[in-house]
Amino acid sequence: MPQVELIQVPPHHADLKALIARLDEYLFKLYPPEEVFTVDFNDPYVHEIQFIVAYTQGKAVGCGAIKKVDESSVEIKRFFVDESCRNQGVAGLILGELERRARAESFTSMKLETGADQVEAVRFYEKHGFVPIEPYGEYIGCPSSLCYEKRLTDKGDLIQAAEVFVKKELEHEPSGHDWWHIERVRRLAVLLAEREGADPFICELAALLHDIADEKLNESKEAGLDKVRGWLSDQGAAEDVKQKVLSIISTMSFNGGKNPPMDTLEGKVVQDADRLDAIGAIGIARTFVYSGAKGRPIHLPGQDFSGTDYRSSDKSAIYHFYEKLLKLKDLLNTAHAKKLAEERHQFMEQFLVQFYKEWDLTEERK
């Protein structure tokens, strides 16, 4: 990302007007004049609009503004980034600064209008937590207008945005770390938080995001954490929320039993929820799904894998019961999780007894 400086400028600033002229030139190529919604710089109230210009090495490369709509909401206007600086994080910085200013003035909603032909813009806004709404104000009746909104203060909105994000990222994940795993862990985390007196919001949010950062699904552990960190920043999550969630998901995995114990109640709850979904009938199913996705055989009798790296794909599905699943019951943190684990653990033991009977054909010897 280039070094970027964000500066608030007055409405008639030369750099701002030059960037807006380029934006208008682009928009008038896409839409008829009556479907391009500009800012009237002759309006005496134009000075109430906050304009931001982004600079790199002294060159103006982007702009954006927020305009008050009503007592609770602002509208993003005149958002533009020079082609040479797109997909480099500049747009995200401008949007983040506009959101910071809206929050600082206690607005609870940001709205915007974009065009149906601006596919990249739509993707950008959706990535940053904006959801479609009905056309409002001057955009009502405009055939090309798409309107969006992002709520700024409600914890429920952050949870909802996390659901959308995680579903998009993991809906078709083939190794047992898909959306339905996330949904089960989320429900378990909420249940355990209620029973143990933990913060339900932090538990639910961390449960939703935990596999976005999983090193098995990313180039590295740090790359996964950066993805979560970036998404939380894009959503305008408070610093303490980001720190709590990242602390949980960075240390909750089994990792061959090498990770240190969780140091917060919320961390213990989310870790327990994830581990409960790794045992019992669901755990058995996920083990074979993961093994199939990684090309692992069902069983390799007589082979000793004790010296094999935990992440190695050279082991069997059945060995995974012994290196991890059968250990989890005794590694849980909370009282209610331990209670739920008893039946699930027994089911795995019964499964293995039956598995070996069928593998060795001992049932035929009775």
From TrEMBL:
Q: Which PROSITE patterns match?
A: GNAT, HD
The residues forming the signal peptide are none
What GO molecular function terms would the record report? acyltransferase activity, transferring groups other than amino-acyl groups
Specify the HD domain's residue ranges. 178-279
Which UniProt keyword terms apply here?
Answer: Transferase
The family database entries (InterPro entries) matched by this protein are listed as: Acyl_CoA_acyltransferase (IPR016181), GNAT_dom (IPR000182), HD/PDEase_dom (IPR003607), HD_domain (IPR006674)
Q: Does the keyword Hydrolase apply?
A: no
Q: What superkingdom does the record give?
A: Bacteria
- Sequence ranges assigned to domain N-acetyltransferase in this UniProt record: 4-153
Indicate what this protein is called per its UniProt record: GNAT family N-acetyltransferase
